[in-house]
Amino acid sequence: MMIAPAGDVTGGEAPIELDPAPRPETIAALNDRVYGYPGSFARTLRSLDDLDVCLALVDAEPVACALAHDAGGDCHITLVVTLPAHRRQGIASSLIRRLVRRGRERGCTTTSLVATRSGTPVYARLGYRDVGPVQMWERPAEG
Fold first, then answer.
1. Which domains does the chain have, with CATH numbers?
2. How far is Cα 136 from Cα 131, in angstroms, rounded to an integer?
3. Cβ-count burial of 123 within 10 angstroms (0-12 exposed, 13-18 middle, 19+ buried)?
4. For residue 62, pLDDT beyond 80
5. Is the dihedral of CA 26, 31, 32, 36 positive or negative?
6. What global pTM score does this model have?
């Protein structure tokens, strides 16, 4: 788990094309593709209601996304993914900065996220600090 004061997650937002009307199916498919869980996100992500969504496009194709939801003044970032061919270009960092800026505009004073090992250095550069591990349990699909 990583946290930061929302005001500390600042910096430039890369000039990227954003999907003006992202759909749950697109976000789920991108996460399934990156994380290698075919159909897992598609089975669970049915709505984007109450979520702030940034979906980056390159040549009209989805390449990265990040979502946020507010809880008690915290802008929680989730479902951050970037296709391998588009990594190390600042896309995910820019999406997170946008989401946290918009969270501050809604009154959030902190931001949090659960980081993978590969994401931890990216988030640390944005100003997040590690506050300890989160243990996640997954129930295998039946069938």
1. 2-130 (3.40.630.30)
2. 16
3. buried
4. yes
5. positive
6. 0.90
